[in-house]
Design brief:
Blueprint lengths: L3 H8 L4 H5 L7 H15 L1 H4 L4 H20 L3 E3 L4 E3 L3 E4 L3 E5 L4 E5 L5 H20 L10 E5 L8 E4 L7 E2 H7 L6 H20 L2 E2 L8 E4 L4 E4 L6 E2 L23 H15 L5 H9 L11 H16 L16
Antiparallel strand pairs: 1-2, 3-4, 4-5, 5-7, 6-7, 8-10, 9-12, 10-11
Helix pairs in contact: 1-3, 1-5, 3-5, 8-9, 8-11
Bound molecules: adenosine-5'-triphosphate and magnesium ion (MG).
Adenosine-5'-triphosphate binds next to strand 3, strand 4 and strand 5.
């Protein structure tokens, strides 16, 4: 803690390096602590609303701290490599995803949740082994590049192959089509999602969080990647944790099975499709029944869904899909 006088003496006329130390990348936690302590000392709650000198110093302090952070990137180290953390790409349920020059790095926001990242590493490694034998399924899952297993109290991180150029999430798609999707556009997304889910089940895994944010799609190439494996478990186990933002099927809390993912994928389908897609919606409702035993099996669903599509639209044709251009306004 600093007094007002100490804070003024330190901040007035100082450079970013004077205040936060030399150009060492790993000084971020210390710098943040120092910044917060100084901001508190100069805050109007302490110095009073008319203390213009403290106000000016506080503005300088924030400017210098921003400058310091911009010029000292965070570098994460593992025994296999170093990763310079760039701009934030996305905010997830337990982690933030940042760009690096060649990858993305997923950093858990709260070290208490490191075990969820460890859990995801195990799932991604299982999928990796599975797709060694079933290589056509490889593009459906994220690729683990490296893992940051850290000391207690630090934040674990995962280095992943980047899915950035041309990829959007189904949440982005949903926002871009507020009236819901045409069933013919949903068709390719769902066929591929079902394939990813069925593959995971063959590998013995339940994803446990099939929601719009965790499905990445590449509209131009009709690609689908099922991401967000922190909550995954082996079939028959309970989920390691649940997220408040997710509406789960009734069995969650107890052991989950492939049927749990079937429910979630089709609840997502109901959310994505336009209301007038009556037949596809009826199909999805059959897969979201409360009793897991009544839901169809993911592998059988692939064939059933194809049959439905053929009945509705005849032979399959490639249908271009794109998100509407945003004006940026
Ligand atoms: N490999 C990747 N490349 C680019 N963006 C990604 C990648 N993986 C995830 N993302 C983006 O980052 C967001 C957060 O990632 P992710 O879903 O893995 O983290 P989380 O929600 O915190 O954890 P989880 O979903 O495993 O509980 C995703 O919604 C997606 O937009
Ligand atoms: Mg997620």
């Amino acid at each position: 803690m600093f007094t007002r006088e100490e804070a003024l003496r330190l901040v007035e006329g100082a450079s970013a390096d004077d205040l936060f130390g030399p150009a060492e990348p790993d000084r971020h936690p210390e710098a943040r602590q120092r910044y917060r302590a100084l901001v508190t000392a100069l805050h109007p709650d302490h110095s009073g609303p008319h203390d213009t000198r403290a106000h000016a110093a506080s503005a300088d302090l924030t400017r210098l701290y921003d400058q310091w952070r911009r010029t000292r990137p965070v570098v994460l180290h593992t025994p296999r490599g170093s990763y310079t953390v760039g701009t934030r790409h996305a905010v997830g349920s337990v982690a933030n995803v940042y760009r690096t020059d060649r990858h993305v790095v997923k950093i858990v926001r709260n070290p208490a949740l490191n075990p969820l990242l460890h859990n995801e590493w195990a799932a991604l490694r299982t999928l990796r082994r599975f797709t060694d034998e079933h290589d056509w399924l490889r593009p459906y899952y994220p690729e683990l590049v490296d893992t940051g297993d850290v000391r207690r109290g630090e934040r674990a991180f995962t280095v992943l192959e980047p899915l950035v150029d041309g990829f959007v999430t189904l949440a982005d798609v949903r926002r871009a089509f507020p009236a819901g999707l045409d069933g013919r556009d949903w068709a390719w997304m769902h066929r591929r999602l079902l394939r990813a889910v069925a593959g995971a089940h063959r590998a013995g895994l339940v994803h446990g969080a099939i929601v719009a944010d965790n499905v990445l799609v590449h509209p131009a190439q009709h690609g689908v990647v099922l991401a967000g494996w922190s909550f995954a478990v082996e079939e028959g186990q309970p989920l390691p944790a649940t997220a408040k933002s997710i509406t789960y099927p009734p069995e969650v809390g107890g052991p989950v099975t492939a049927a749990t993912d079937v429910h979630m994928a089709h609840a997502l389908m109901l959310d994505m499709l336009a209301p007038n897609e009556k037949q596809q919606r009826a199909f999805a409702r059959g897969c979201t029944q409360d009793d897991p035993a009544r839901r169809p099996d993911a592998a059988a669903l692939l064939a059933e869904y194809d049959e439905l599509l053929e009945e509705l639209h005849g032979a399959r044709v490639f249908r271009p899909f794109a998100l509407p251009e945003t004006t940026g306004a």
